[in-house]
Amino acid sequence: MNPGKVLVRADLPKEERNWIRLKRDQRLRETLSLRSRVLMGVRCFFHKRGFLEIDAPALVPLPGMEPHLDPMKVEAGLGEGETPVFYLHTSPEYCMKKLLSAGLDRIYCLGHVFRAEELSQTHNPEFTLLEWYRAAEDYASVMCDCEELVVYLADMLGKGPKLLRGSSEPLHLEPPWPRITVWEAMKEHAGVDLEEVRDLDQFIALVRSKGYREVEDSWPWEDVFYRVFLQEVEPHLPKDKPFFLVDYPLEMASLARKKPGAARWAERFELYAGGLELANGFSELTDPLEQEKRLWAERRQRQEMGKETFPVDYSFLQALRLGMGQAAGVALGVDRLIMLLSGATRIREVLPFPMEDLLLDLETAVAEFKSKEQSLTGRPSPSGPAPKHPDKS
Known about the structure:
Layout: H1 18-21, H2 26-48, E1 52-53, E2 59-60, E3 72-75, E4 85-88, H3 93-101, E5 106-114, E6 126-135, H4 139-156, E7 162-165, E8 168-172, E9 179-181, H5 182-190, H6 200-209, H7 221-233, E10 243-249, E11 258-259, E12 262-273, E13 276-283, H8 288-304, H9 314-323, E14 327-333, H10 334-342, H11 355-377
Parallel strand pairs: 1-5, 9-10
Antiparallel strand pairs: 2-4, 3-4, 5-6, 6-14, 7-8, 10-12, 11-12, 12-13, 13-14
Helix pairs in contact: 2-4, 2-10, 3-9, 5-7, 8-9
């Protein structure tokens, strides 16, 4: 829920890397066992409901355009000539929508995605994402899927319907879970009527009038929204039960369709449980002209934010032109779900190789390599990257 990142400890002892701790830490062993059971449970859940598992490519020629997401670049060495730049996908969304346009109706993807973001208690640059779609459905149907999936996994692990969380109050999983609109949450707890806000300038002026003088003219809509939301609204949201925050302003839902009869709002939702943002979903926008307009708007926003920009993915728009039909989809962070089910408070506790540990592996390996090289050659290793090995082919 909080877009800000809190950096984790930089002084993690080398012996605290998870793969070293595993020898002596029974709780970590149990958590990794639980992780394996959750992954198997997810596949079982969707298999029983007639979904087809999709193996989406991790390397894509064009990433998503979302202003708040930054992809990782990869140089694809495809032989002689120009080396094309690819990206590690931030989500399998575009690929899966292409398959929906080809006539598949119930599909899911369970795999790793990558985002260039800081480490935090709930963020790791490489993480496991579950994404699924239903053709001829809307966001209400995939919200029900979320409820059923979490309850199914909790029951499978012997933890439902009341999820105990250490010293925190129990989390009651019995559906249905509350659906709270963004409009009513902001109106009731922050005194901000988003129905009356017509553009970003008006929104910034309104927020400043409520005392948020630090908000600058250059801030994008989402940053302005969360500055108020986190202070005024979040403390009042349910703590004892998962809930859905539904119907977002169009400015925060570029891939979602408009809510019928409500021009200001999109059929988007987010799922929260135990203080964790677990999932983001919506009724899909299938109008290629409207989608093209929104993608160009996001590209301009990235430019204004000083971020890397990419060409609009017209192969994705081609899929919409072929006729995707009404559909709904949702992306769920599996590592955070495992945190919820295991009682972990940090994402590194549910990963065998969190990024912190990989950085320590690199530091340890480079230090030992340089020491060994100096002992063998009698001179220190030059600074900079290690030389490439000659091609032995």
